[in-house]
Amino acid sequence: MNVEVNNESGVEIDAHGLMRLSRFVMSSLRLHPECELSIKLVDEDTMARYHVEFLDLPGPTDVMSWPMDELRPGAEDDSEPPLGHLGDIALCPTVAAAQGAKAGHGTWAELELLTVHGILHLLGYDHAEPAEKAEMWDVQGRLLEAWRAPGNRLEGV
């Protein structure tokens, strides 16, 4: 799985860790082994500009996603999933830091959560309706739990 991380935020972030997490999530959701994902870390001004331009909402947000090839999680029947570009995610580390501090789990845990959240959005998950939100939060929680379990991380991937 090809994951590109471009850090334009001015904040030092473990790009390799974000790549490993993304590959873990993409593999767990049975995406094609050659599927592509781009992650861009941006500052608050850039994220605020994206937020206005694409959602017509003021101020910076934590994560935004732009799907490309409308991929969905792979079937459990071992059939070959479609190849494609999953899409692009923008993360704002300074917003993540504030949210992580407020939630009591820190910046890295918040960036992990936002990365998984962004990938799920790229795969068609949403949280506008209560049932959608419950499903998305369930999948997000299970993926994060699996990622954080000892020995479950795809080391070196």
TrEMBL record:
Enzyme nomenclature, EC number: 3.1.-.-
* Highest taxon, organism lineage: Bacteria
Enzyme class, top EC level, equals: hydrolase
The portions of this protein that span the membrane are none
Classify the main location. Answer: cytoplasm
Q: GO CC terms for this protein? A: cytoplasm
Q: Per the record's keyword annotation, is Cytoplasm included, yes or no? A: yes
Pfam families (UniProt xref) = YbeY
Q: How is the cofactor bound?
A: Binds 1 zinc ion.
Q: Where in the cell is it found?
A: Cytoplasm
Q: Which cofactor does it need?
A: Zn(2+)
Q: Which family does it belong to?
A: Belongs to the endoribonuclease YbeY family.
Q: What is this protein called?
A: Endoribonuclease YbeY
